[in-house]
Structures are given as C-alpha cells and as structure tokens.
Backbone:
C-alpha cells in the first residue's frame, strides 16, 4: 500500500513538470535509460520505481521527493538537516552555502520569488558579506563545540573560498523579487551581549572589537538605507518590520514558481529545511501573522525608523 502511494505520488509529480506536448513515457525513457515496456509497467503500477530511479528523476527533473513522501504520509514532514560537520566544519559550511547560492541563482529571473523571515538575530542574508561579523558567528559556533579546536578569535583563519561564497550568497538574495524582514527589536542587543562576553574572557582583543564595531556601524547604515528606499541594489522590494514582541527562534520561507521551502535556524549557523507543503503554509502564515505585532519602517514609519536605528547605534557604542 505504501509503495503504491509513493509510486503514484512520483508519477503525479512528474506529470506536473510536463509541458502539454510532452509524453511522460518518452520523458522517463530518456531520463532512466530503460525500455518502453519497463516504463509502462511502472506507470501502470505493476512494478514500482526503485530508489535509484526515483533519485535520478528527482535530480534530473527537479521533482521533490520530500513532497512525495509528505503527501503519502500526511502526518509527517521530511526535513533536510543542513548541519555543519564537526570533523570538517569549513568544507561542509561551504557546501551548504554553495547549495543555497545555486538555488537562489535559479530564481533570479522569477518575478514570483519571495523570501519571508522573522529573526531574533541579524539574518545571514544581511551580515554574511561582512568578513569580521561572519567570522565571529563561525567562531562562536566552533568555540561552543569544544571538540573543535578554536582558541583566540585572531588565531582563527577562515579559508578565502568561505568569504567568497558568503558574498555570492548575499548577492543572489538581492535578486529575490520581494522580501519581508520581521526583526525582533533585540537583534543587535543579542549580538553585542555575545561579543562582550568573548571580550570579557579575553578571546577577542580590543583591536578586534574596534574592527567589529566599525563593521556593525557599516551594517546599520546599510540597513537604514534599505529601510529608507525599500529596495535592494538590484531594485527589488524589501519590507522591513520591527516587532514589539520577542521571538523564540528564527523562521524563514522561500517561494517561487517551482519551490516552496521552509527553514528553521538551529545551532547558531545551521538550519533545517523542508519542502513539505503543509509545513510551508503553516510557517508562512506564522511569519505573516507577526506583522500585526510589528511596525513597518521601510518607506514609512519615519519617526519609528529613525528611533530604531538610533537605538541600534547606541547599543553598538556600548561595546
């Protein structure tokens, strides 16, 4: 029964990818390199697709196996654990960011692409192009995992390709057609607390603190400009809200003509993701509902916008 449902779900998902002129049997023959009769036995449900065949269809046709499993088991959602490997943190971190960058690049010409996020920390889409700030995020994560050798902040060397892929990731987010940011009003306060702690235990020098403060002020200036214009450098829409309530976690969703992706931040720099439709709709509804507790400061709310960024600069100057 379960196998039959999964097989039917895979066939239905392939049909959704077909243009009106395409024949599903011919498409699957070209994809799987097996004969017509073998294909028709699978289409009739007499023989199920193997796991290898399903994976090949997923990779070549962009069919979501997560979605198929989610439909077949309606009470469950399949999550992808995008967690940095402790044994090779830089390489796995690079691989994860590279995957997201390639995904975002495919959406650059999609006028329906949208990103929504409710954040209790500064979003990666905004801070990752700043070398020292992004280095601190990695440093904090590596220090917390004590089995990863990480001593003083200045001694930590980040491979150049990490900085490059972080900047590429941020650049691709500029092309998302519409972005909703809903910020916890404590996002800078949380970061300053972390930085001050590592300074107090002498793992960040006064010299590095000054460099970090400089980047934080650059970031605030950039965010204020974004809020004033309501546009990315690529000319796409950005809506920035500041919440009057605090968030227990950071949730995000990414949507386009061909994708519905939900993301939940875990372990500081990681996220778990799913393409489950029910999860996506639930998470999107949750994020959008937070707007009623928030003030829009992009292209409106001038007084609240000025006050918010003034407060952030005052918090940074405490460091």
Residues:
């Amino acid at each position: 029964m379960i196998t039959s449902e999964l097989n039917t779900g895979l066939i239905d998902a392939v049909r959704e990818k077909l243009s009106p002129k395409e024949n599903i049997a011919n498409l699957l023959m070209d994809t799987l390199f097996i004969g017509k009769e073998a294909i028709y036995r699978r289409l009739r449900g007499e023989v199920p697709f193997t796991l290898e065949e399903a994976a090949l269809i997923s990779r070549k046709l962009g069919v979501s196996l997560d979605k198929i499993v989610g439909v077949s088991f309606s009470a469950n959602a399949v999550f992808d654990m995008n967690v940095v490997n402790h044994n090779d943190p830089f390489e796995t971190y690079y691989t994860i960011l590279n995957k997201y960058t390639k995904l975002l690049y495919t959406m650059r010409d999609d006028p329906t692409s949208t990103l929504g996020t409710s954040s209790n920390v500064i979003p990666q889409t905004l801070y990752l192009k700043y070398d020292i700030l992004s280095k601190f995020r990695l440093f904090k994560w590596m220090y917390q995992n004590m089995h990863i050798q990480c001593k003083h902040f200045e001694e930590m060397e980040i491979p150049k390709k990490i900085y490059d892929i972080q900047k590429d990731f941020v650049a691709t987010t500029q092309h998302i057609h519409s972005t909703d940011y809903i910020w916890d009003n404590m996002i800078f306060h949380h970061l300053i607390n972390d930085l001050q702690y590592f300074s107090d235990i002498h793992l960040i020098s006064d010299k590095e603190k000054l460099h970090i403060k400089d980047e934080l002020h650059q970031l605030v200036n950039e965010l204020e400009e974004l809020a004033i214009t309501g546009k990315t450098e690529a000319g796409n829409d950005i809506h920035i809200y500041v919440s009057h309530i605090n968030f227990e976690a950071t949730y995000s969703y990414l949507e386009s003509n061909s994708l519905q992706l939900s993301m939940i931040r875990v372990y500081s720099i990681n996220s778990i993701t799913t393409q489950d439709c029910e999860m996506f709709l639930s998470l999107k509804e949750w994020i959008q509902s937070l707007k009623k507790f928030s003030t829009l400061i992009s292209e409106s709310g001038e007084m609240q916008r000025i006050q918010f960024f003034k407060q952030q600069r005052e918090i940074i100057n405490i460091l």
